[in-house]
Amino acid sequence: xxxxxxxxAPIDSDVTISVEMVSKSFGPHKAVSNLSFSIRRxxxxxxxxxxxxxxxxxxxxxxxxxxxxxxxxxxxGTDNSENDxxxxxxxxxxxxxxPLYEDLLVSEYLDFIA
Length: 114
Description:
This protein is α+β, with helices and mostly antiparallel strands. It has a single domain (15-113), classed as P-loop containing nucleotide triphosphate hydrolases (Rossmann fold), CATH 3.40.50.300. It contains three helices and four strands; from the N terminus they run ββαββαα. It has helices spanning 55-62, 85-89, 106-113; strands spanning 15-26, 29-40, 70-75, 78-79. The protein is globular.
């Protein structure tokens, strides 16, 4: 996932996620390059793109599973590199493919994990 255009996050309390010039590499492969965006309270977003575009890496960066090589990610105003427990508890993430419980309906699975 890459962008050459820098997007400034609006400065207000409605911004819940702010990604500022984030990059992540694995060896020589740059998975995410200079990514910037913001998400406001109540917005629903999705990442679209071909395999290898950086969608999963971006989600893992947002959830603090990975740390960015460069840039900053703010969740409710807190830098997620601080790995704050309260910040991590405020993030819900459901991956596309769940390796367990394939026989459950979506509603049953959501009830189970919630």
